[in-house]
Design goal:
The protein is 47% helix and 16% strand. It is of the alpha/beta class. α1 packs across α4.
Length: 132
């Protein structure tokens, strides 16, 4: 089973996991790390600690957005580990799909699948809607 670390700013990761568990039920193999009041160095240390405990597993690290401290910490860890994939833009459709598909895909394929799920879960309605 592929494991997951949700690494985000503030309480976002905790809220996503909490909501996912309310929909699906209790989950194993998912950890949340917040960058709140944490230096980049400490963020890397916290992330590295979880990764080392799961070193025999494939791990998907999902972060909230590219370029922030969460992304940079995950990139540092990813560089030295071949069993890790990194995905930005974590959201609820991505979390739900991860839980439902993590035993059906290999890690790289799962990461690309989740990216597609995230995009499919995004719609725009603008202007006037025509009544049918």
């Amino acid at each position: 089973m592929i494991k997951c670390i949700v690494l985000t700013h503030g309480d976002l990761g905790f809220a996503l996991l909490n909501t996912t568990e309310k929909i699906i039920g209790p989950l194993e193999g998912i950890k949340v790390i917040s960058n709140e009041l944490t230096s980049l160095k400490d963020l890397i240390t916290n992330l590295d600690s979880i990764v080392k405990n799961w070193e025999e597993s494939e791990i998907l690290i999902m972060v909230d957005f590219c370029g922030g401290s969460c992304w940079h910490a995950a990139r540092v860890i990813k560089r030295s580990m071949s069993n890790i994939a990194l995905l930005s833009g974590v959201n609820l459709p991505m979390m739900l799909s991860f839980v439902n598909k993590r035993e059906s895909y290999k890690l790289p394929d799962l990461a690309y699948y989740l990216k597609e799920c995230s995009l499919k879960g995004t719609e725009v309605i603008a202007g006037e809607e025509k009544q049918e």
